[in-house]
Every structure is written in structure tokens, then in C-alpha cells.
């Protein structure tokens, strides 16, 4: 029968102790490189050789640019993020940036730091009009992407008295409930941008969103706009951003992602990727990552994976078989045939797909030792199967 065995977890980067403390007694931490799970933050795994036994990677954060999804999938490794764990941290930073931008706080502080002497009071009184700003009250903010972070930003800006227009072509029902009814929803990106005094992006980086704020979008904005990107580098096209600043279509750019072309400009403020850098956010991500790893390893259930579909089935049978496989015709039939040939009766079967990858959960009541010894091997011999696992319900 499947036996309870220790699971090995390897960590990269500094993982908050509160997350490590979440692991149950059957988990060992950093005792082997041949791990069942990785708990990571920003380490780049693109050139990494994944161990054969690596079943799951959990990143304590919302992005996954540092993880090669195709490589992980081919290894039969599920990849998870911890969406929402740093959402409040980013929201609070965004509010600070909106205020700093509208009141020219960075330029004003820099001026004050470089002036001294006996007549400083007179000079600052004379020069302070150079830093006159504007109030956020009544200004229009376009929030592009209203998921975990964007919805919080939109609601907070609305509470400050701003007119908020949200745009998100992938808006889920859950996200819709998080948005205040006072927030206008645009049908197109251009509609959201056209009247905005401020534009902020909060979308994941992928093929569709890379460069989504470019020449065409800047042309749709009204002159004098201020742009914020605290989501991911590359979502705003920096070359086109500089053009918009140079021709005064935009008056400022605030971002958490620096590059040579935007540095050393008075109208650009770059912060060193600090959006989610709070103790609370790091704790949230580590705890959520640890719980995600344990849930997947012990039950096979999937939530917030970036290469597997969400699939959550109550684990009430004594045994569970999980299969990660290609999303092609007749896979469920081939899997069922293997079980039938092994004289295994299926109590329940659930299947879902995400793009080219599918995931199947099968619950069974009875297994004999000889079935256990070769069942995974038989399932793994199906060409399109990435990984088959056999779990015992220990509750």
C-alpha cells in the first residue's frame, strides 16, 4: 500500500521562518537537493536542472518569470504562485506614489537636500512655487488590470475621491465582487485611457501584455498624463514611454523596474523592485507557499497553478491517483483502460485542462500491494503522461 513518507522541501532565497514553521512533521527542509518541492522567491531557475522527483514549485509572490514553465511541465512539476500575498503592500506603495507624483515630492525633497545656508528660508519661499502640484481629488485614474492588486488600488483611489476607470478583459466573477460599484468599467483599453490623468498597470506579464502600453496607447491618452508600472518590467514599452515624455504627452513615469534608457531623467522615478517588499507580504507569501505545497503533495488538489488547471476534489476515498498529462484526445480513455486492466474500480474521476496541459484526479477504495508496485509505472508508460502519483488518505 502507499506508505506515509517524509517529503523533502528545498528553499531558495531567504524564506520567512513563519512559512517554514508551517510545514508538518513529515516534511524535511533543505536536507537534500533531490527534493519533492521547491519553495522560492526570485531565484532564476531557467538554467536549473530539475530533479526527477520534483513534483511542485511554489513561488512566494505573484509573478513567475523566473520559472521555465515548459521545462517544469515536461518534468511533471506543478508550478504555483501566491497571488494576493503582496497585494496590500503594492496597494499602499501605489497610493504613496500617486501622492508623491501629484505633489512633486521627489523633486521637492531633492531640492531641499541640496540647499543650505543663511538665506535658505528666503530661497525656499521664493522657489517653492516650482513644485506646485495638484490634488488627487476629482482626477481620473485608469487601472489596467483589476485582479488582486488592481482591485485594491482602484478601491483605495476611489476612497481618495478620484474618478476610477477599470479595464480588464479577463475580469473574473470573484474579482468583480472586489471592485467598488463606484468604479467605471471600460470596454476597451483605449476607452480606459482616453480621459485619464493617471494610468497604472496591474496585469501579469505574458505574450499578450508585454508592451501593451506602447505608441498606440500613448496616442490615445490626453496630454499631461502620468504613468505608473509596478506590475512587471516590459508591460510599458520604455522606448515609447520616453517618446511620450519628450513630446509632453506624458509628464511623468514611475516604475519599480529600471533600465538604462529611463534612468537619470527628471521626469522618471525608478524604485528598486520594492512593490511587495514588506515583512507582512513576505510572511504571507511564505505561509501561502508552504500551505500550497502541502495541499498539492498530500491531496493532489490544485489552486493558483500557472501550468495546471484548478481542480479541487474532496479527498474522502482511501486512495487517490493523480495524472499530469498532455491535453489531447483519448487520454482519459487510456488512463481508464490501464486501471481496468489492473482490476481497479474507479470511485470518482475528475479532469480539467489548461492550454496544452491536462490534469486528472481518480479516487479508488481498494488497492492491493501488487497493484501499487506497478500502477504508476503502467500509467507513466502512456506517451503523453508527464507524471502519475499515488496518494493515500491519511485522515
TrEMBL record:
Gene3D superfamilies per the UniProt record, alphabetical: 3.30.70.260, NAD(P)-binding Rossmann-like Domain
Source domain of life: Bacteria
Entry-linked SUPFAM superfamilies: ACT-like, Formate/glycerate dehydrogenase catalytic domain-like, NAD(P)-binding Rossmann-fold domains
EC number(s) per entry: 1.1.1.399, 1.1.1.95
Chain ranges of the ACT domain: 320-393
Signal peptide extent: none
Pathway: Amino-acid biosynthesis; L-serine biosynthesis; L-serine from 3-phospho-D-glycerate: step 1/3
Matches recorded under Pfam families: 2-Hacid_dh (PF00389), 2-Hacid_dh_C (PF02826)
Keywords: NAD, Oxidoreductase
Catalytic activity: (R)-2-hydroxyglutarate + NAD(+) = 2-oxoglutarate + NADH + H(+); (2R)-3-phosphoglycerate + NAD(+) = 3-phosphooxypyruvate + NADH + H(+)
Keyword match ATP-binding: no
Family matches, as InterPro entries: ACT-like_dom_sf, ACT_dom, D-isomer_2_OHA_DH_cat_dom, D-isomer_DH_CS1, D-isomer_DH_NAD-bd, NAD(P)-bd_dom_sf
A Gene Ontology molecular function term of the record: phosphoglycerate dehydrogenase activity
Family: Belongs to the D-isomer specific 2-hydroxyacid dehydrogenase family.
Function: Catalyzes the reversible oxidation of 3-phospho-D-glycerate to 3-phosphonooxypyruvate, the first step of the phosphorylated L-serine biosynthesis pathway. Also catalyzes the reversible oxidation of 2-hydroxyglutarate to 2-oxoglutarate.
Protein name, as recorded: D-3-phosphoglycerate dehydrogenase
Organism: Secundilactobacillus similis DSM 23365 = JCM 2765
Organism lineage string: Bacteria, Bacillati, Bacillota, Bacilli, Lactobacillales
Amino acid at each position: 500500500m502507499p506508505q506515509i513518507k517524509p517529503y523533502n522541501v528545498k528553499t531558495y532565497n531567504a524564506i520567512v521562518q513563519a512559512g517554514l514553521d508551517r510545514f508538518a512533521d513529515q516534511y524535511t527542509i533543505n536536507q537534500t537537493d533531490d527534493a519533492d518541492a521547491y519553495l522560492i522567491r526570485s531565484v532564476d531557475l531557467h538554467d536549473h536542472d530539475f530533479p526527477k522527483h520534483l513534483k511542485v514549485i511554489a513561488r512566494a509572490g505573484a509573478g513567475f518569470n523566473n520559472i521555465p514553465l515548459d521545462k517544469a511541465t515536461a518534468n511533471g512539476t506543478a508550478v504555483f504562485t501566491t497571488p494576493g500575498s503582496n497585494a496590500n503592500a503594492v496597494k499602499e506603495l501605489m497610493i504613496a506614489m500617486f501622492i508623491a507624483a501629484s505633489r512633486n515630492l521627489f523633486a521637492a525633497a531633492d531640492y531641499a537636500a541640496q540647499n543650505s545656508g543663511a538665506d535658505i528660508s528666503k530661497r525656499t519661499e521664493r522657489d517653492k512655487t516650482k513644485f506646485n502640484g495638484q490634488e488627487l481629488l476629482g482626477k481620473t485614474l485608469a487601472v489596467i488590470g483589476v485582479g488582486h492588486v488592481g482591485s485594491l488600488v482602484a478601491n483605495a483611489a476611489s476612497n481618495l475621491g478620484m474618478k476610477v476607470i477599470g479595464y480588464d478583459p479577463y475580469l473574473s466573477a470573484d474579482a468583480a465582487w472586489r471592485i467598488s460599484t463606484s468604479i467605471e468599467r471600460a470596454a476597451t483599453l483605449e476607452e480606459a485611457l482616453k480621459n485619464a490623468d493617471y494610468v497604472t498597470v496591474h496585469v501579469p506579464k505574458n505574450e499578450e501584455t508585454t508592451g501593451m502600453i506602447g505608441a498606440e496607447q500613448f496616442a490615445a491618452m490626453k496630454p499631461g498624463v502620468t504613468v505608473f508600472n509596478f506590475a512587471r518590467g516590459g508591460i510599458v514599452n520604455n522606448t515609447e514611454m520616453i517618446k511620450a515624455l519628450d513630446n509632453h504627452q506624458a509628464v511623468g513615469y514611475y516604475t519599480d523596474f529600471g533600465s538604462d534608457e529611463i534612468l537619470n531623467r527628471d521626469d522618471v522615478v525608478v524604485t528598486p523592485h520594492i512593490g511587495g517588499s514588506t515583512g507582512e507580504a513576505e510572511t504571507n507569501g511564505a505561509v501561502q507557499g508552504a500551505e500550497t505545497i502541502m495541499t498539492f503533495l498530500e491531496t493532489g488538489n490544485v489552486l493558483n497553478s500557472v501550468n495546471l488547471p484548478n481542480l479541487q476534489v474532496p479527498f474522502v476515498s482511501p486512495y487517490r491517483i493523480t495524472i499530469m498529462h498532455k491535453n489531447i484526445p483519448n487520454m482519459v480513455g487510456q488512463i481508464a483502460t490501464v486501471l481496468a486492466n489492473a482490476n481497479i474500480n474507479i470511485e470518482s474521476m475528475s479532469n480539467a485542462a489548461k492550454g496544452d496541459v491536462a490534469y486528472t484526479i481518480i479516487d479508488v477504495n481498494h488497492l492491493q500491494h501488487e497493484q501499487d508496485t506497478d500502477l504508476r509505472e503502467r500509467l507513466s508508460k502512456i506517451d503523453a503522461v508527464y507524471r502519475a502519483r499515488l496518494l493515500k488518505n491519511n485522515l
